[in-house]
Design brief:
The complex is a heterodimer.
Chain A: H1 3-15, H2 36-45, H3 49-57, H4 65-98, E1 103-106, H5 108-112, E2 127-131, H6 136-145, E3 149-150, H7 159-163, E4 166-170, E5 176-180, H8 186-191, H9 194-197, E6 201-206, E7 209-214, H10 216-229, H11 236-248, H12 253-262, H13 266-280, H14 286-291, H15 298-308, H16 316-324, H17 328-339, H18 343-350, H19 358-361, H20 363-371
Parallel strand pairs in A: 2-5
Antiparallel strand pairs in A: 1-2, 3-4, 4-5, 6-7
Helix pairs in contact in A: 2-4, 3-4, 10-11, 10-13, 11-13, 12-13
Chain B: E1 16-19, E2 24-28, E3 31-35, E4 43-46, H1 47-55, E5 60-61, H2 62-73, H3 77-93, E6 97-99
Antiparallel strand pairs in B: 1-5, 1-6, 2-3, 3-4
């Protein structure tokens, strides 16, 4: 077995620890000689330190004393970060409630405290809070009043509510808070009805309070959307989230089937389940197969490719979005925001000390045109 | 004339303690990290302190805690009781533990 295969096997072994229904070998592959630093870096990057520590405690993973100390140090740092974020979450959500703003806690803390047997199994390094589109401006104002800085301004006034997914904010301590309006960028973000998500909310306990989170069906849909559309290749912890909800969640498969059709999510769900089954050796529940037993539309397949192939980094998601926006004026507004964003957006996008110009911004669309 | 029912003498029950619901915590590999809103520091418990924290996920009296630790560690009860007293006082003072009022559970 090559070093690379053993490396991948080891990561997958960690990623499936304690997962009901996983069918990977019970015997842990040994970390390749002298490769522990690289393995540990991947475990950390994949948010798997909690599963690795739990696997060690259960005797399902063996490492040297030195490697154990490294792993514990990384996991301790990850847990300190998670606790700091939970502290911030309690403060922020109190402020949201005081202002009468509806919100839902997404991902990290919501998944860690409900899907997993122990929250320490699921590190996270930011917070994600969904608000209603109608509450978007008051929520932005509230975060600004609390001293949070928005990382990137919206390209043009009103872009967020019409086309945006989320706005990343940073606390004075450097914690990252994503304020969400919907679950995905681009076409799928436009097809999802974010207001309906507020009809599928339950709660989880944190710090003596009950905070709203998506119910298991919506949690599963979001986990799939995030894993497949968040970047071109999902990380293992994102697939583990899907597997975890599939294994322990109470999923309403009729609802999932409806969203697959109405929100055009069938290709996303199918892709997410296929990746999860392959990476984690998990047998999918037959309900999942039944819910997606439809012909997957070719158009959505092409749109999915814009997210999951290298075309993503050449503006394919933006191009697909133009196709998905209804109405000429809305399309024009989107194109205008992308091509002629405000000066503040342009300079923020360029970063400190870098040049900002429309010509630099137009490089990608010019490349599209010159290739044709 | 209706006779009032006699009030029984109040029984003095030993105090019971548990984790403060407001505490945010993470436990792994025999250590516990604790945080709370409005508190800058994150506390780290290890050894006996972490074991006491784990035991107090449900309300227990100090003698119950001492007995459980004595069973696990096989150490002298008097020594454990002294340690546990000090630890619980400290964790109460820091707000990580609370004394249980009967309505709490």
């Amino acid at each position: 077995m090559s070093e690379l295969v053993r490396f991948g096997e080891l990561l997958r072994h960690v990623a499936t620890f304690g997962l009901p229904g996983a069918t990977l070998a019970p015997q842990a592959p040994v970390a390749p000689d002298g490769e522990w630093d690289a393995v540990l870096a991947s475990i950390s990057a994949d948010h798997l330190t909690g599963l690795a520590v739990a696997a060690l405690e259960a005797g399902a993973l063996q490492v040297t004393e030195e490697a154990l100390e490294d792993l514990l140090a990384r996991h301790r740092a990850a847990m300190v970060a998670a606790l700091g974020l939970e502290r911030t979450l309690l403060e922020l959500t109190t402020a949201f409630e005081d202002q009468g703003l509806d919100y839902v806690v997404l991902k990290g803390p919501a998944v860690a405290h409900t899907g997993y047997p122990d929250p320490s199994w699921r590190p996270f390094n930011d917070l994600d809070i969904l608000v209603r589109t109608g509450d978007w401006r008051p929520a932005l104002g509230l975060l600004a009043n609390l001293g949070l800085r928005r990382r990137l301004p919206e390209p043009r006034p009103g872009f967020d509510e019409r086309f945006g997914k989320a706005a990343t904010h940073v606390t004075p301590d450097g914690q990252e808070i994503d304020l969400h309006r919907t679950l995905a960028e681009g076409p799928f973000g436009l097809w999802i009805d974010p207001n309906e998500l507020f009809d599928h909310v339950t709660t989880f306990r944190l710090g003596g309070r009950r905070l709203p989170r998506l119910d298991d069906s919506a949690l599963l849909a979001h986990a799939c959307v995030h894993a497949v559309l968040g970047q071109s290749q999902p990380l293992l912890y994102e697939l583990r989230d899907i597997a975890q909800v599939l294994a322990v969640g109470r999923v309403d498969w009729e609802l999932i089937a409806r969203w697959a059709e109405q929100w055009r999510l069938a290709v996303v769900l199918e892709h997410a389940f296929a990746l999860t089954g392959k990476a984690l050796g998990m047998q999918l529940p037959h309900e999942a197969q039944e819910a997606l037993a439809m012909r997957l539309p070719r158009f959505e397949r092409r749109v999915l490719e814009a997210y999951t192939t290298p075309k993503r980094y050449r503006g394919a998601v933006a191009m697909s979005t133009i196709g998905a926006i209804r109405g000429v004026w809305h399309k024009a507004a989107y194109i205008r925001a992308l091509l002629l964003p405000g000066e503040e957006f342009l300079s923020s996008r360029a970063g400190n000390g870098h040049r900002s110009s429309y010509l630099l911004r137009w490089r990608t669309p010019i490349r599209w045109l010159t290739r044709r | 004339v209706t006779e009032r029912p006699s009030t029984p003498f109040p029984r003095t029950l030993p105090a019971r303690f548990w984790r403060s619901p407001a505490a945010l915590s993470r436990s792994f590999e025999e250590e516990v990290l604790l945080a709370a809103p409005g508190r800058e520091a994150i506390d780290r418990l290890s050894g006996t302190a972490a074991a006491v924290w784990e035991l107090l996920d449900v309300p227990r009296t100090l003698p119950d805690v001492v007995a459980a630790l004595g069973h696990s560690y096989g150490a002298d009860s008097a020594t454990i009781a002294r340690d546990v007293d000090g630890l619980v006082d400290d964790l109460l003072a820091r707000g990580w533990l609370e004394e249980v009022i009967d309505n709490d559970v």
